[in-house]
Amino acid sequence: MLKSKKILVTAGPTYEYLDDIRFIGNKSSGKQGTEIAKCLHKLEADVTLIIGPVNLDLSGMSKVIRVETAIQMNDAVTAAGPFDIAICAAAVGDWRPKEKARTKIKKTSKGKPPLLELVENPDILKNICSGKNRPKLVIGFAAETDDLLANARSKLQSKGCDWIVANKVNAENRNMGGEENEVIIIKKNEEIKLERQCKERIAKFICKKIVEEISA
Question: Could you confirm whether 175 is annotated as catalytic?
Answer without folding.
Answer: no
